[in-house]
Design a protein that fits this description.
Radius of gyration: 26 Å
Order of helices and strands: EEEEEEEEEEEEE
Number of strands: 13
Distance between the termini: 95 Å
Low-confidence stretches: none
Structural class: mainly beta
Largest sheet: 5 strands, antiparallel
Helix content: under 10%
Oligomer: single chain
Shape: rod-shaped
Strand content: 35-45%
Number of helices: 0
Length: 178
C-alpha cells in the first residue's frame, strides 16, 4: 500500500547565493544569482524579489527609498534593472518567496552604473586671458557630469581643440574669435 504525505509549506529558510551585479550601461544593471537550493525553499517558490536603491556613503538603503521588482518562477536567476541614473552607486539584494512568506535577504551588493555624457553643458564661459597668441578659457563644470570628465572640446572659429589638462587655445594675433 502506498501512502502519500506532504509536509506543510513554510517560508524559505535560505538566502540566494552568488549574487552578482554588473553595469550593463549608463542606466542599467544586470543582476544574477543562483536559484535557491531545493531543500531551502520550504515549498514551491513563487519567485524572487530584487530590491535596490541609490547607495550613499554613510546611509543604507533602509534609510532611503527603495524599489522592489518581482521576478516570477522557481528557477529565475536574473533580471535587468532599468531607468537608473548614470554613474551612480546602487545597493541590490535578493530574496526568495513562496506562499508562506519570504526567505532571508541576501547581503547587499554595491555596483555603479556606467558613465554617460554630461546631462548639461559647462556654464559661465569666460576668457580670463587673451593675448596675441593665447586664448585661455574658463568655465564651471556641468551640474550633472554623469561620470569623470576626461576632456572638453572647444571650437574656436571653426577649429576644434581638445582641452585635457590645459584650458589654453593657441590663436593668431589681431583676429576676432567666436
Amino acid at each position: 500500500k502506498v501512502i502519500d504525505a506532504y509536509t506543510e509549506e513554510i517560508a524559505p529558510v535560505g538566502h540566494v547565493e552568488d549574487l552578482t551585479v554588473t553595469a550593463a550601461g549608463p542606466t542599467t544593471l544586470q543582476v544574477t544569482w543562483e536559484p535557491l537550493q531545493l531543500q531551502l525553499r520550504g515549498g514551491i517558490l513563487q519567485g524572487y524579489m530584487v530590491q535596490y536603491c541609490q547607495h550613499g556613503d554613510t546611509q543604507t538603503c533602509r534609510d532611503r527609498s527603495t524599489q522592489t521588482v518581482p521576478i516570477p518562477g522557481e528557477e529565475a536567476a536574473s533580471c535587468l534593472l532599468l531607468g537608473l541614473k548614470p554613474f551612480t552607486q546602487y545597493a541590490v539584494r535578493v530574496w526568495a518567496e513562496n506562499r508562506e512568506g519570504h526567505g532571508p535577504l541576501s547581503d547587499y551588493v554595491i555596483q555603479t552604473t556606467a558613465e554617460a555624457a554630461p546631462e548639461d553643458p559647462p556654464t559661465n564661459l569666460h576668457f580670463p586671458l587673451v593675448t596675441a597668441t593665447v586664448l585661455r578659457l574658463s568655465w564651471d563644470e556641468p551640474r550633472v557630469p554623469n561620470g569623470l570628465i576626461t576632456y572638453y572640446t572647444a571650437e574656436v572659429n571653426g577649429e576644434t581643440h581638445q582641452l585635457v589638462d590645459n584650458n589654453t587655445v593657441p590663436v593668431h594675433g589681431n583676429t576676432n574669435y567666436t
